[in-house]
Amino acid sequence: MVPTIIVHGGAGDIPESRVEGKLKGVKLAAVIGQRILSEGGSALDAVEAAVVSMENDEYFNAGYGSVLNVNGEVEMEASIMSGKDLNVGAVTLIKDFLHPISIAHKVLTDSPHSLLGGEGAKLFALEKGFTTVPPESLISQHARAALNSFLQHGEFGRTEIGMDTKSDVGTVGAVALDSNGHIAVATSTGGMSGKAVGRIGDTPQIGSGTYADDYVGGVSTTGHGETILKYCLAHSIIKLMENGKDASAATKMAVEGMTKRLNNTAGAITLSKNGDVGIHFSSQRLAWAYIKSNKLFYGINHDEVFEDDVSL
Ligand SMILES: NC(=O)C[C@H](N)C(=O)O
Description:
Layout: E1 4-12, H1 16-38, H2 43-55, E2 76-82, E3 87-94, H3 100-110, E4 115-117, H4 118-127, H5 141-153, E5 172-177, E6 183-189, E7 210-213, E8 217-223, H6 225-231, H7 233-242, H8 247-262, E9 266-272, E10 277-281, E11 285-292, E12 295-299, E13 306-309
Parallel strand pairs: 3-4
Antiparallel strand pairs: 1-5, 1-11, 2-3, 2-6, 5-6, 7-8, 8-9, 9-10, 11-12, 12-13
Helix pairs in contact: 1-2, 2-3, 7-8
Bound molecules: asparagine.
Asparagine binds at residues 10, 12, 61, 168-169, 171, 189, 191-192, 201-203, 222-225, 228.
């Protein structure tokens, strides 16, 4: 099996000033993940490493740079899934760790549970040796400005259709196929600016933000959480593929179907079990990148594909 990785850096109405930083970040994340795969590493390790790289980057709404809830606090969530055995790990309401995706991965490997939240997730992380960081150290200037703008003009629940909120975008995700034919998916987010304290979105919910099945493929989603979770967007795409659609057609059909039915936007990245790629977004933009046959493909606007040579 030829190993492949695809990553995204969030769907939405991404302002011009954030385009370059996001493209740089998704390209780097794809290279980091692909390096692990090309050395024979697992899809799970590759997607974690790709997401960790974007959690470190203030251009994304995950880890450092996460958007803020209505009280001005970071509350992050993440999930990871192994297509080999359908094992999952997810965390939510994480306030003081830099890498929620790594804690989610530990839940997958070291816990009998699938989703841990809040205080329990913190206890688990501490038990497993993760170190806390001061919550303020996760807050970027951009996230603060986004909350201020939300508090002045925002209406929670509208992304692009009907309302201009440029601040929520930047959830990150990765889907990888390794040389053993295993698929893994990871997704991580700070959620949405101005969300209620304790709000949980689509990202930690398996079938909505993340799904992986070696028999079919893997999907990571981004966009308006309350909409994505009603449609179980990631699993909707998997179902369409199971019923014969290719990765590209299934991704487009489910994202467009969700948008039509629920009048809100999202994006998704997909890999089939054979490594075929699907990318679709009903939002204005979605930053994405993938690597195939030593070529790095990437883009952010509709109908746009750039290509670079890549040396790993
Ligand atoms: N930008 C995003 O993708 C936000 C995320 N899906 C959420 O609603 O929590």
